[in-house]
From TrEMBL:
Presence of keyword Membrane: yes
Protein species of origin: Acorus calamus (Sweet flag)
The reaction(s) this protein catalyses: L-glutamine + H2O = L-glutamate + NH4(+)
Region of interest (Disordered), residue spans: 212-236
GO molecular function, one term: glutaminase activity
Protein name (Swiss-Prot/TrEMBL): glutaminase
Amino acid sequence: MLIALRRVGVKGVEVRKSDELDQISALIIPGGESTTMSKLAHYHNLFPALRDFVKSGKPVWGTCAGLIFLADKAIGQKMGGQDLVGGLDCMVHRNYFGSQLQSFETELHVPKLAAKVGGPTSFRGVFIRAPAILEAGPGVEILADYPVSSDKSSTLLSSDGTQQEEAGSREKVIVAVKQGNLLATAFHPELTSDTRWHSFFLKMMEDNGVESSFGDSTTEEALHEQQKGRSNDLPAGSIHKNWKRVEYLIIRLAIFVYSVLCVMVASI
């Protein structure tokens, strides 16, 4: 994510302690293993500060596991559930699209993204053991959805650890939303060369009175890099699909190992 931010001329900083949230004007909660992230947030007492940050009106963007964190309600949790930051009026299914082996790429229809920051009305969505939004409140703006055909009716665990019966087959699920100062995507925009979701988030910062730190020359360089990189993108469903899946698994494994090591270090 930090590399993707540099492409649009913004220097990001990592936040590990609650007092560091006082020094930033916007926050991105990245993907990872949401249960492990929750345990680490508990250990470092981050939840109160994160909830206060969301309520402050400062822009917050959650991707994949970050989306789960921002949701008011989640199902498909592990036994015992997990705490959520909340603030986003929606119900999310933690692993809606299945295991690592069901990771995939697809073209998403994103006319609102294109209207805000330009570019085509499609975006390559990279889904890695991804969640999906099943229900969204009236104040939530839907930015992208994805058609589904399989019957996923099952008994699932909600965020408080209680069982809840999920609705049956659906025609589509929601994969990108905006609600006030909150942006959430079920996919990983940072794994493509298209930085428009990052630009969209910067627009949210500007709307919030936060000036971005890049100049015209940096913006032009970033756009040139983005356009050059797009030509190298593989079309969804290409013969390289399996290799891309292996890459997803390696990336996710690295994130998981890092999270486990953090828990081990924190426990010492």
